[in-house]
UniProtKB/TrEMBL annotation:
Transmembrane segments: none annotated. One of its GO terms (molecular function) is phenylpyruvate tautomerase activity. It comes from the Eukaryota. It comes from Citrus sinensis (Sweet orange). SUPFAM superfamilies: Tautomerase/MIF (SSF55331). Keywords: Cytokine, Isomerase, Secreted. Its main location: secreted. This is L-dopachrome isomerase.
Length: 115
């Protein structure tokens, strides 16, 4: 159930979006040790964002997971997603924040119930 929401002020065309979705899905699943079949990635491009007082390319992400987050993986997740954004959208890693949420099963719904 890991879900990654990405917001960027860079316009994202369909081809680049598809590449990011594929790469981020594989990365999140691998780093968290979860099946790709439960990973969801959302990309919101062209969102007005100011970071450090400028509208230069920037991004914000939120990753929610039931377990698997912690000091040993959080840095790896942050750097890997930042690298994908740098490669695909030319967003410098110094202009990217990511918030990581570890939630309990009862706080995440799926298939008409909770995990």
């Amino acid at each position: 159930m890991p879900t990654l929401n990405l917001y960027t002020n860079v316009p994202v065309d369909a081809v680049i979006a598809s590449d990011i979705l594929r790469d981020a899905t594989k990365a999140v699943a691998k780093i968290l040790g979860k099946s790709e079949s439960y990973v969801m990635i959302l990309i919101n491009g062209g969102v007005p964002i100011a970071f450090a007082g400028t509208e230069a390319p920037a991004a914000y992400g939120e990753l929610i997971s039931i377990g698997s987050l912690g000091p040993s993986v959080n840095g790896k997740l942050s750097s890997t997603i930042a690298e994908i954004l740098q490669t695909k959208l030319l967003i410098d890693s110094s202009r990217f924040y990511i918030k990581l949420y570890d939630v309990e099963r009862s706080f995440f719904g799926f298939n008409g119930s909770t995990f």
